[in-house]
Amino acid sequence: MGNKELLEKDFKNLLSELNSYKEMLALAQWDMRTKIPKKGVEQRSEVVGFLAEKAHQLETSEKMKYFIDMLKEDTENEIIKKAVLECEENYIRNSKIPLDEYKNYVMLQSKSEAVWQEAREKANFALFQPYLERLVEYNQRFATYWGYEDHIYDALLHNFEPGITTETLDRVFPDLRQAISSLLTKINESSLKPDSSILQSHFPKTDQEEFSKEILNRMGYDFSSGRLDETIHPFAISLNLNDVRITTRYDESDFRTAIFGTIHEGGHALYEQNISEKLASTPLATGTSMGIHESQSLFWENFIGRSKAFWSSHYELFKKFAPTSFQQVPLNEFYQAINEVKASFIRIEADELTYPLHIMIRYELEKLLINGDIKVSDLPNLWNEKMQDYLGIKPPTDREGVLQDIHWAGGDFGYFPSYALGYMYAAQFNHILSREVNVKEAISTGNLGSIKHWLTQNIHQYGKMKKPLQLIEDVTQEKLNPVYLINYLTQKYTDIYRL
Amino acid sequence: MGNKELLEKDFKNLLSELNSYKEMLALAQWDMRTKIPKKGVEQRSEVVGFLAEKAHQLETSEKMKYFIDMLKEDTENEIIKKAVLECEENYIRNSKIPLDEYKNYVMLQSKSEAVWQEAREKANFALFQPYLERLVEYNQRFATYWGYEDHIYDALLHNFEPGITTETLDRVFPDLRQAISSLLTKINESSLKPDSSILQSHFPKTDQEEFSKEILNRMGYDFSSGRLDETIHPFAISLNLNDVRITTRYDESDFRTAIFGTIHEGGHALYEQNISEKLASTPLATGTSMGIHESQSLFWENFIGRSKAFWSSHYELFKKFAPTSFQQVPLNEFYQAINEVKASFIRIEADELTYPLHIMIRYELEKLLINGDIKVSDLPNLWNEKMQDYLGIKPPTDREGVLQDIHWAGGDFGYFPSYALGYMYAAQFNHILSREVNVKEAISTGNLGSIKHWLTQNIHQYGKMKKPLQLIEDVTQEKLNPVYLINYLTQKYTDIYRL
């Protein structure tokens, strides 16, 4: 073995060590959310803290720096080259934060989540305010350490969606907002009013679970590389490429929670399960960004799962698992009901059309906050004003308003835009997919595999080998363009509401 | 803080690091046995290997040696003192084995388990023989590294039951064997023949699970610090004092597997759940030996779970969960049936009386093997001869014979005697318990808590603060004495079989 081969081998060993910590962190997290007994949590939190520190130490170690310097310009192996770049980015970003500050921040995060939980339960923003103020300060400081060109918020966006800036968002969001608003006005004027009460009949958990599993199988989710469990907050998590687990929530009085939740998380899981094995045990073996990840989950949930084609060919199957009351519900009424548009206080309960408005509200507030244009104490009022402005409703308390999401309590500023970006990406991918695959036929013949295959070929297999913007351009031959989502929504709701 | 306090604090931090690795190893193992998807196993094995190496490195590190040297003679803190001694023992034992040999041995173990599995399935001892030969060689060499006074096998016994030697076993086993043989002869001559076919009616899994959970609750197993899952091979595992999980196996045609299995594992779990919180995050926060652990599981399974007092007061409860056929089975016939004596090829299916004979066979063979008096290739024949001699039956193939247990494939020589020791310990503890607590009354009033309380006060709380022999003497005021088990078995089976 030559010197370079030896070096590459040693580098791979270091990556594999890092990966071991990350697999254990993922397992610990999965267990804490699904199986851990109540009293085991305290000690486990310490263990997780220890593992996270170990991983962080490796990522910023002298050893890591050495491999980056030695291999950066001097490897012909494309995977190693990209892995080195990924490690370098992490190294630079992590090294810019003094270790003491990092540790204090991690402790603040974990405390803040508990305080947020209490504040939300009591609908008492004042409890959470001092913590949120410190979290904002940290994020402002980190953003300064990391650096940015135009807007301080760009430094935070970069953590979740590299390449996307406030400039991009300020370009695409207004068009999207206007299109949605105009659709909303027409929908409100429409005489057609879907009746979603027909969906609310008692649907036993075990039957929902069986139907969910059947759909996951048809999507191509591999149960020998994953499993489905039950949690209050559904999620997907990858332990390694051959162990990608999802969870869902069952509401026996409303099956939509479980079915669409399962399809959504299944979309995330398909992404992780179908990354090329060649990337295993490297930092490239995961989704390339939050936005691209969300494009996969939203694609399956909305573009497939809430489509007419899907229910035309799966409604009979559904009725085999569903309560008998559905026998009396015609397909068309069912389809309209699951696509009812109705302004909601809660983001995760929002319909397909109004969902992006929730994201825009958060984005605008975050940007102002991080830029120092508004204070944390201004948030509750501004939130309510924006809800009124965008959605025409005002939350009764901060529980249904500014306190509803956990993200800020975890210090995740710059995360929310990924949800709307993912939605636009999904529409843009869907546009190309529909040209290359006969989607309707694939769905109606139950051959969802051909859709999964296209996604794997064009998106999944690459993991982090391609950055999100490169991926979008490679697949769609253009940059992020909101027009595809606008067209999709216009077409879908014009049809449903006969606009 | 003085120098000594600082030193103790740093030592505790090291122990807590070590504990983090061990908690993660336990979680990984639990997950691999209960939840992991099939294809996730390969990568996980690497992660487990990595974590085990990390823990081993810490246990044999210069840093560990430093704390041992500095604190051994110079601490007034009783817990730290014992923790140092425990670490020193591990340090010395682990350091005596060259790292290369250790690694090769770990790899051999993991390979051997897979080969053993195949060999057992195919009832083909020859497949397994070369691996077993190497495992025996390693164990002989390790025993030499570790050292011993009289018998090489003592060095291996020490790993599982410190203080117990071949001399002890050779003193107690013959008496026990003779007592059992004499009881067996009488039982075979007795006209009373329990009818265990009355137990075999279809008992749905969910009902068995509910009854099992009810009994666990009554035993005092804390579900907020644990959980019950299903596996083919039941086990108990402690992640930390507040997270002690158990599993059981459900056989819908024979409830005994699940019920007695659950009580058995519940006994192990009660031990771990009730260790003093003061020992948390030290190597003392676990059961003191395999034998003492087995004394707790066997105590609950046999002395409580198969007792007349237990079923007199729980049979009505049982019938609420059981198939209706049990309504026709009188308590006495039920009690006789669950205590039927019948020679069995398989150790884990053996009845209470013949169980120790299975252990003696393995002990005698292991001793000869490690001492070099017999060869691995002699095992199948010798096994069958001893089965004939001790139990009067001969296994049809090696699958039901020498290949039945996994222990040797994992290199665990010296482990089996713990099972019989645990049984004798249990009887000896039970003798004192019965003097200090009105056990029959406690059982009949459903107050198993007073039994758990006694076990916690006398045994559980100490964790590894007391070595097994010290514990036995402190609780029973004498050394290991097989007479209590002999008396218990004699009394029980004289009553059941009207001898």
From TrEMBL, chains A, B:
This is Metal-dependent carboxypeptidase. InterPro entries: Peptidase_M32_Taq (IPR001333). GO terms for molecular function: carboxypeptidase activity. It catalyses: Release of a C-terminal amino acid with broad specificity, except for -Pro. The keyword Glycosyltransferase does not apply. Pfam families: Peptidase_M32 (PF02074). SUPFAM superfamilies: Metalloproteases ('zincins'), catalytic domain. It comes from the Bacteria. It is an enzyme of class 3 (hydrolase). Broad specificity carboxypetidase that releases amino acids sequentially from the C-terminus, including neutral, aromatic, polar and basic residues. Its EC number is 3.4.17.19. Keywords: Carboxypeptidase, Hydrolase, Metal-binding, Metalloprotease, Protease. Belongs to the peptidase M32 family. Signal peptide: none annotated.
